């Protein structure tokens, strides 16, 4: 089966059916029961929850420790021979860390050797990977040079962006029609139309893309939209409006509270506000990102599942001649790294300027190195085809 990729979104000439049981789409979308409603399918479970307390909850459950761990260590000054020198001690440990997670740029020859005679599929996070981390999430713009690099990659490889942002928002920021987009940590995927029985699944909707072309929307958490939009998001905005610097975002299938611009002494207040709302929604859970608290549906779905779904829908799953590459920087990307590490299916590449444990195989320091890596992929492919 051949994949056509041009200036429009890629379309399959011979789509295959999706193995829903292997992906865990139908029986394994687990959720928790809630008074006043239940999921149409899935198993119900019960979570023991502590009674709310003033700040004790967020300290005892480790929320504050997790929030602090997302803050990079400050540089410290040392004096040597009476000369004050700015030294970042993280650089020393970073060099040691790179022994376990070598640079994908310096390891490119090894990566390309393994990619020979294989079809590469590229999966990219957005924030911190294609764009820098900034104080205002709405200003996390991707440089034109990065946009050009991503566009070139999509000419040669099926390419998807899997972001924690809403799918519409990440498309607005990227603005490329050559790609597939998965928003809300993979809970909102726009993919090619496939005339199979999977189209009848309740989580599929026939729609049109920005060019008016027919596509399939896969949204395994669709029934949570009213809960997130009409209740949780509005409550988060109301309860945090008195906290200077707090930013609340509605990602359609999840809601985020950014505390990057909040004074650290007020972080416990942010955490308590989120905790007090979340305790009333046992079908929702908290995850931590880079100075952000995210509330998501409790279903068996994440970025790793999204990668599997896209590979399956593209006809690239369970093949020995496919090499998926996933590049991301945040905790939510670890699910995708884990999928690729299992069975050595592909390469996860962590974008980080400081050492941290990961399921990735390789590393890149920042978005500028991501751009260099993407350009290297294109040069290698052009050389292979010459």
TrEMBL record:
<comment type="similarity">
    <text>Belongs to the trehalose phosphatase family.</text>
</comment>
<dbReference type="InterPro" id="IPR036412">
    <property type="entry name" value="HAD-like_sf"/>
</dbReference>
<dbReference type="InterPro" id="IPR023214">
    <property type="entry name" value="HAD_sf"/>
</dbReference>
<protein>
    <recommendedName>
        <fullName>Trehalose 6-phosphate phosphatase</fullName>
        <ecNumber>3.1.3.12</ecNumber>
    </recommendedName>
</protein>
<dbReference type="Pfam" id="PF02358">
    <property type="entry name" value="Trehalose_PPase"/>
</dbReference>
<comment type="function">
    <text>Removes the phosphate from trehalose 6-phosphate to produce free trehalose. Trehalose accumulation in plant may improve abiotic stress tolerance.</text>
</comment>
<dbReference type="InterPro" id="IPR003337">
    <property type="entry name" value="Trehalose_PPase"/>
</dbReference>
<dbReference type="GO" id="GO:0004805">
    <property type="term" value="F:trehalose-phosphatase activity"/>
</dbReference>
<keyword id="KW-0346">Stress response</keyword>
<dbReference type="InterPro" id="IPR006379">
    <property type="entry name" value="HAD-SF_hydro_IIB"/>
</dbReference>
<dbReference type="InterPro" id="IPR044651">
    <property type="entry name" value="OTSB-like"/>
</dbReference>
<dbReference type="GO" id="GO:0005992">
    <property type="term" value="P:trehalose biosynthetic process"/>
</dbReference>
<keyword id="KW-0378">Hydrolase</keyword>
<comment type="pathway">
    <text>Glycan biosynthesis; trehalose biosynthesis.</text>
</comment>
